Amino acid sequence: MAPTLGAATTTPTPPAHRRGQVGSRLRICYLVPGHGLLPTVGPSRNVLSLSRALAAYADVTIAVRYRLDDGLGDDMRVIELEPERRPDRVVDDAAMRGMSALEFARYLARLRRFVREARARFDVFLEKSWILSGSLSAYGLRLGIPGVPVENVVPSAARHRDAGLAKRLRIALGRSLAGAALRRLPVVLAETEELKKAMVRVWGLAPERIAVVPLGVDRALFKPLDQATARAQLGIPLDRFVMLYVGVLDETHTLDGPIEALASLKLPGVELHVLGDGVRGVLYAQKAAAANGAVILHGRVPHETVPLWIAAADLCLAPYEPRAFATGDLGYATMKVPEYLAVGRAVAGSPSARMRTLLGDGAFGFLIDFSRESWLRFLTELPSRERLAAMGCAALAHPQPSWDDTARGYLMACERALSAVGRTS
Description:
This protein is of the alpha/beta class. The protein has 2 domains: 4-216 and 402-420, 3-Layer(aba) Sandwich (Rossmann fold); 227-396, 3-Layer(aba) Sandwich (Rossmann fold). The chain contains 14 helices and 15 strands. The chain has a 9-stranded mixed sheet, sandwiched between helices. A 6-stranded parallel sheet has the order 12-11-10-13-14-15, with helices on both faces. Helix 1 packs across helix 14 (403-420) and helix 7 (256-265) packs across helix 12 (372-380). Residues 1-22 have low confidence and may be disordered.
């Protein structure tokens, strides 16, 4: 899938001076205000994978609120904005959960100060989506350094309808301020066409200013692996029907349905393995206790072992809560589904236009509402393992984009942002 800029579709190549000719390299700061850096969690993996791919063409520095894993390699330059704020217990990479209004104001001032102080060291900022998406890019633009927001979701009011009034007001205000900032910028990156449509509809962005660049897959890591070999290494019997979920355990990903259905049906030889941690981990553990061993929660595992777990599975799960998205439909790219497919495994995903596209209109998996009732029906008529294996093989005939493809699309967006202020790299 080729990156797109505005309405035009093209396969970009890096600028000539970054293909070995004379000239300096672009200096990029990937500013990640809303997350800590935890390599086993999706948003952080997204940032790290893209930054490593960009480093083939540019000098890249990541700026995060704090690092959450001291074992992170030294292959990337990382700036910690507030290392002293690192939490005692690491659940995921969300860096602003529970932040008071006063603390948020202080943090915002710290972010703006960083942009002011760092503008001489970088040519362009990438700004990872957060509650005030685009605000730091707009601020930097006033100071003469362009920024490119990287959006993966339009905040949903419905997601927080059960929260207190103060939180709902903060979300509404943040969404309004983000829209105002984003509308002032020459280029904004979106991960999917569906997200681009939501940004136009909710924020009123001009479509021609939105560059759609899909996320990539680490093809060296996520590649076809033999199921029997994977199960032997993980100690999973060959005769089991294995389902797998990999990802954060939060309100966006709804595992209640399959866990409750497995606890109710108690199907012999059917297992659900869950890799990851998050705020709903304790609740899922309580529900899994009623499943008599059919639901196994492994917590976080090393990222390098994830492909082995995918290879051991028959069916991989991609549940998404519709209320998490402003339009009620999955908008962001989702890293897990392309990685499942790149290993050659069928997928059960929440119904949406985006998921339908990813699953090849049913050729590579199933669209399933992740309610308890839907999973009771699905589990009582499980597809054969042979059918699922055939779906996985079909997926392998449609390779996923690489991170290098993604990096080249991001470089084009950076060049466009520089051109808009009369600069070139």
